[in-house]
Amino acid sequence: MLEGLTDWLSDWYDWIRAIHVIAVMAWMAGMLYLPRLFVYHCDAEVGSVQSETFKVMERRLMRAIINPAMMVACTLGILLLLTPGIIDWSSGWIWTKLAALLVLTGQHGFLSRWRRQFENDENTHSQKFYRWMNELPTVLMIVIVIMVVVKPF
Questions:
Q1: What is the pLDDT of residue 2?
Q2: How many CB atoms lie within 10 A of CB 37?
Q3: Region for residue 151 given its phi and psi (left: phi exceeds 0; alpha: psi -120 to 50; beta: otherwise)
Q4: Which of 148, 133, 110, 143 is nearest to 39 (CA)?
């Protein structure tokens, strides 16, 4: 059975990789946009039409784009890791990439928590805080892409 799986992974590698990249792009788009919505939401008066509109936008972005894209990206990423002959586990780049991915996944969790705080009118952070949080996915994306494409170590 294991041999059949490894053959399947090898045969479908390019398709798995292509869909993985598409899912990562969708995930990153949402991870970059949601904190920007939070920046603007900070200015909206609690209970206002504007605040309620932001809540709908944030919920839909998280549930319809960010969460599904992350699940697809991670599932296909695991399949790519399992594909025989693709990863040299003695190389440092893969461990750096996986560490950056772990931080990015943690950021996803924090974004989800902050979205629920806005939903419940319990936000405690400033616009400046969310501007900084908007930069983290960009830095992580740069690290991940360089690790996967350049494989510097």
A1: 76
A2: 18
A3: left
A4: 133
d(CA 28, CA 144): 12
96: Cα separation from own chain's centroid: 16
Cα(30)–Cα(48) distance, integer angstroms: 24
The first and second tokens of residue 151, run together, are 């494989």
Cβ-in-10-Å burial (0-12, 13-18, 19+) of 130 comes to buried
pLDDT of residue 3: 80
pLDDT on residue 128: 97
Q: Are 117 and 153 in contact (CB under 8 A)?
A: no
pLDDT of residue 42: 97
Could you say which residues of the chain have pLDDT below 70? 1
Q: Tokens in use for 33? A: 């946009």
Kindly give the residue spans of alpha helices, DSSP state H, lying in the chain.
2-11, 13-43, 49-60, 67-82, 92-119, 127-149
Residues 24, 13: Cα–Cα separation, whole Å: 16
Residue 83 identity:
T
- As given in the structure block, the two tokens for residue 108 are 């996803």
Q: Render pLDDT for 86-130 as a digit per residue (tens, 0 to 9).
A: 999 999 999 999 999 999 999 999 999 999 999 999 999 999 999
